[in-house]
Every structure is written in structure tokens, then in C-alpha cells.
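Database export, one record per block. Field names are fixed; values are copied verbatim from the stored entry.
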Amino acid sequence: MHISAAFDSGNIEVDQASDPSDVQLRIRPDAGGDHMQWFHFRVAGARDVPLTLRILNASACSYPLAWSGYQAVASTDRAHWRRVPTSYQDGQLVIRHTPSADLCEYAYFAPYSHEQHLQLVARCQQATGARVSVVGRSVDGLDLERVQVGTGERTLWVIARQHPGESMAEWWMEGFLQRLLDPSDALAQALRSRATFHVVPNMNPDGSRRGHLRNNAAGMNLNRVWHAPDERSPEVRCVLAAMDDTGVDLCLDVHGDEELPYNFLSGAEGIRGWSSRLADLQSRFAAAYERANPHLQRVHGYPVAAPGAANLTMCTNQVAQRFDCLALTLEQPFKDDANAPDPEFGWSPARAKRLGASALDAMAEVVDGLR
């Protein structure tokens, strides 16, 4: 039996793999050393062999409470990722599974590789009216692509995967872009005539490729530097500069949440410039999103910040304050949607893509009133 993580988004270290009933593993920390939770590795040579895979340092991860109720995903074809029996015992994450093929991969969530990202961008530029540009480069020198489409006067920015381990964010982005660029979708066509979209499918390509949870290659949490991005966070610096050039009427920042088994929105209520206009837009956006796709719910989520107490290092708060615009963070679960559980797949790429497509309904509800 052989265990490897030497591939795009791979992350695992092997302490002991001689006994299939007691394989001992550790998650490698992000650059910077302050975060870890993402794992992605492959087991070879264990077909039909019952495996017990123990991640020994699970209790030292960034969100140890997230392991309760969590089930890892496994795949033998890299296309379909099914949940497998997983438990959190004595500070260890324990995966018990019998692979049905010679090669089986395990991951924290269904990965979205850099190659998939490049294919997504390539498909986008084939759509009528769509343009792809490079707004900047990452610490490792990877391109940050922006997909631009639409001719309307409203300016809508949609970004994803500031935290690279939140791969469901790019699955969401795939569904969103597929519908937005669909020439036969009447709602998408109407939105493209009323707004200009600027879409960054992956804000953190370095971390995605390196198998990080939250940080870029310089060890920076990109969603904590929007107040003052520098050479250690060029990804945010270049996107914020592009936003300054275009202005922003709506910003949606797509993420994943380790602990909460729900899809939800988080707003900018704590900024100094919060107003009844923004409150009304946010309420209408959220209600329309929930009507379009009930996987998005408005009961469970983060506590609302007190007036004037917003954390301006974060994208949603900084952009809302800077541009006096509607800005929201969308969170998806690593676990399952507790309101509509799927024991086989949990929250999955297919459901994330549909949630992405449904965002157009919410945008259509508010686009004309953004200014």
C-alpha cells in the first residue's frame, strides 16, 4: 500500500502505513503555520482492503469543532465524490473505508484543481460577449483571471475561493458562470443587458494548488487584508485596484464554512455607512435567493456585527464601506445541508453548482435598485 499527496491540492503526511487497519496520518499546515484542515491524498494498492485512516493531529486543526458530524469524501474516478464513514475520536479524525479500486482518493471536500480552473476560464472565453483578462499575479506567479461580460450600467463583482480549501466556492462559480453566459437563458440575457459583471473564479490559486486551507503562498489570509493589501497579498491588491477602476454596485464573495451545516449569507451591517437602503437591498436579495433555491436559508448564520463594529479587513465589509454598495459573503457547508440531507453525497459539487446558478435570480431582484 502506498499513500501520496504529490499532486495539485494534495496535503497529507504519513507517519505509518504498514498496517491497513491503523494508517497514521497528519495534515500539513498552510504556509505561515497558523491554519490547517484541508486534506487530499491517494491510497494505492488497497483494493478490497478494509482501511482505518487516522488523522492524528485533527484536534490541532483550525476548526476542531467542525469534525463533529463531518464525513470525508472518497473517489475512484476523480469525478464522483461520495461520503464515507468518518468519526472524531480522542482528538483523531478516523476514516473507515474499503476501496473498490486500486487507486482511491480521499479529501476534505471534492477538490477543484488548477487544471479544472483553467478549463473553466477557457470555456468562459468561448461565450459570446465574454472577455477574459489577467488582473494580476499571485505570490507564486500564477495568473488571476477576470471574466467580464455584460453591457449594463450596474457593476457587479463576484469573487470566490479567497480561502483555497473552500473548494465548493469554485464549484459554485462553475454553475454561476455557466448560467450567466448561457445565450438561451432569458434571465441571464436580461441581466447582461442591465449590468456588467466582473468575475474572479479563484482569488487564491497558490493556496489551492499547494493544498492550503486559508492562506496564500506567503502565509497570508486574504480575507483579512482588504484594508491594506501589500506585496504579501498581491491577489487582493490587484483585485481591489480593479474594483477602484470600475466602481462596485454589488459584490458577492463566495466561501465555505467548516462548522455550520447550512448555506447562508453574511452582510455588512456593522459598517459606519450602513443605511436603510442597503438593509432593504440585502433583505430583498436574500429573500429572492431563498425563493430561487431553498438550500439558501436565512435562519442560521453568523452573528450580526454591532453598528460601527465591522471588521474592515474583510472583503464584504471593506467593499461595502468603500463603495457604499451592497456586499455579501455567501457561505456553504463542508458537511451536508442539515435542512435537506443527502447521506450519499452530502453538500456536493452538483448542489453547489445549482446554488451558483440560482444567484442570478437574486441579482435580478435588486439590480435596478443598486444605485
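Remark 1: The mean pLDDT is 98.
Remark 2: The chain has two domains: 2-107, 114-369.
End of record.
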